[in-house]
Amino acid sequence: MKARSLIVALAAAGAVTAGTAWGWSLNPARWFGSAATTPPVPAADAAATPAPVATIGAPDYRAIFQRFGPAVVGITVEGSTPAARPQNAPDPGGDPFFRFYRGLPIPPMPRGDAPTYGQGSGFIVSADGVVLTNAHVVRDARTVTVKLADRREFEARVLGVDAATDVAVLRIRASGLPTVQLGDPSQLAVGDYVLAIGSPFGFEQSATSGIVSAKGRALPGDAYVPFIQTDVAVNPGNSGGPLFDASGRVIGINSQIYSRTGGYQGLSFAIPIDVAVRIRDQILATGSVRHARLGVTVQELNQGLAESFGLDGPNGALVSSVAEGSAGEKAGLRAGDVVLSLDGVRIERSGDLAAMVGKAKPGDRVVMEVIRQGKRQKLTAVLAEAPAGSEELAQHAPERSEARLGIAVRPLAPQEREVTHLRGGLVVEQVTGAAARAGIEPGDVILSVNGTAVATVEQLRSLVNGDARQLALLVQRGDVRIFVPVRLG
Prior knowledge:
Helices cover 16% and strands 35% of the residues. By secondary structure, the protein is an alpha+beta fold. It has three domains: 1-34 and 53-288, Thrombin, subunit H; 292-385, PDZ domain (Pdz3 Domain), CATH 2.30.42; 400-487, Pdz3 Domain (Roll), CATH 2.30.42.10. The strands form five sheets. Strands 24, 25, 26, 27, 28, 29 and 30 form a seven-stranded antiparallel beta sheet that branches. It is elongated and about 75 Å long.
């Protein structure tokens, strides 16, 4: 199973593990107790002193488990792999984020075309046998078995799998089954109580609780999912299980954890249930999933980049590259644009843009407000359809060292332009000073400075030797383009 940069998936099968968590807003009528008695606030301080927070009672986890636990199922899969990794071995590269797919203490499988076994979790969303789980739990399975809380077992049919969101839909032949109730993650707030039920390490019907730590987390390789972060203990085998709010409604699917050990370390991530419902509805209707695509790569703004682009603060999505022929290019988006809103909805962080596009459909028309070189404008894009499995992309002696920036650069050689498909840019040969402190590395290709393309050393020199004390360099490193803020001395 493919390791994901910075995240762990939570199914237990032959070698990896995964977990997620979610949260839900409290019902004040049910959970707020009587307000705690507080000393009077002096009149002079009353206006500046916030009112005390009312005492919050703990949710009735026992009632939630008794009512909805029967709708949580265990999932066992049998598959094969051409090169099975030993059980419980970490994903390559030591990445702290990875998906948990294999986690039970089953003896290591030999290399070769050998069977593998895995376990995960899921939950029933319709009485006639529709089950939601993670895509990574069942994607490579030859057979899938669903085990109910009453210990009955059914062979399941995989109706559809969407790798982009890590959601899968199964069906078992049964009727009159217990089901969960689905909630609204938009009402979720940091600090809300949440409860996870699943089969960690094969221990069926295990419940763990915690709170919502953050919302809208953007994780590497998961552009379509604004994850819910919690501190709920999730481990291998929890993948695909439900995350309940304090009222007992499902608001997420446990999917990933952040871990340097392969086990729970207090950072769990869940797929919001509204994302999963959109995938479920498409699979049930057509058997497949279509995703909208804008065709741009964006990165987070920090204070240094915000100052370089003349912004009031580090809000919005900074466009670092635009795919040729994409909806973004046709709309007029350029590298260096900062997208402030989509259809009137403010973009606080770069992940917000991807999540908003993920909610749209191919063919939808969206209006973006952008800042380009200090000026606001609106662009309209008609979203395209993302191809299945698609992802976004780009010897001479150094000519001289630019002392103020601290780099030695040279123009791209003709053969380098042909290989990289770049029409301009300067290759970094040596790095010192301000550029080194900012993270510029030898081999980087500088494409622009503060939004102005550079193709010659003279162009770079004129841009660097101005009055600006903060520069935003658009750099291509391998196949990735990023903006790097450089503060000059």
